[in-house]
Amino acid sequence: MNSPAAGRSKTFETGLLWTQGNALLAAANFVLGKFILGWLGAWRFSALVYLIAATVNTIWWYLSDRHVMPQLQASGTGIKASETSTRRWAYILGHCLFSASGVILLWLGIDLVPSHVAAILSRVEALVGIGLGLWWLGESFSGRQWLGVAITAAGVALIRWAALSGEALGFALLLGAAISLGLAQVLGKQALRSVAIPRLVLIRGWLLCAVFLAGWWIVEPGPISLDWKQWAWIVVSALIGPVFARNAYLLALSYLPVSQVVLFNQTQPLYAVLIAMLLLHEYPGLLTIAGALVIVSGLAVVLSARPRPAAELNAPPTEPGT
Questions:
Q1: How far apart are CA 26 and CA 161, in angstroms?
Q2: Which residues in 203-217 are b (16+ Cβ under 10 Å) and which e?
Q3: pTM (2 decimals)?
Q4: Tens-digit pLDDT profile for residues 136-147
Q5: Within 13 Å, how many C-alpha atoms sit on residue 67's CB side?
């Protein structure tokens, strides 16, 4: 007969496995996206990826609901029936629009800087989400949390001073993406108070698809001509990013608290650096490596010091790698 301690250990190990699966797949998608952006514009790439991902996720949730696929976390922190329809849709639309702006800024930034740098700077999203979550609750940062913020800011500064192929614009776009995705986190968590996760995921997926298709038509008009290998890479990106990586994160939430999932997910930059070295021959400099370590250390300080209610204000990840 299994003891309660053994059961808790198994739950922890399973959750840890899903968080690392999410981190690895998301990192791989950063690198793959960098490769695809070499021959396809960011708007077209995003539109095709989310069209495929939204379709696959719709099928996934349908099969999950019928216990054919792994069951994902089905609801948020608690449905509030009293939430007004106007406010509910304001949260949902805000979550989707900031997600869309964050995703496109991220891909535009990745097109200008090394993929591993983009993966490292994306970690700032968690800090933005935590800070906004605390502000939303009317709480202030503790001294230890401000220390974590200062450490993270120092890490960002180190990376900015590193050699980024002279692309200051890419750095700015990536920070803009982190801020947008952090806002999307908080608004998404508020939306989850009145709508179940499956519904929010599907609404977000199809709305992002519509936004990127419109952007394709306005910013990058005209048809595309791709061979079967290029189509295959796009399908792979859609599957390992918005489908498998994102759903791995949701599965992790079924086993571990959000605070632990976010903390363990900080291994993503390490995977991105290793994959970029192997596939794209991107080799980070010492300042970039130091900056990555400092950023992750700062986030660890903030995450370990924040009060419990703030942990409840983290929505499922919204970056394209997840």
A1: 25
A2: bbbbbbbbbbbebbe
A3: 0.82
A4: 656 566 778 778
A5: 0
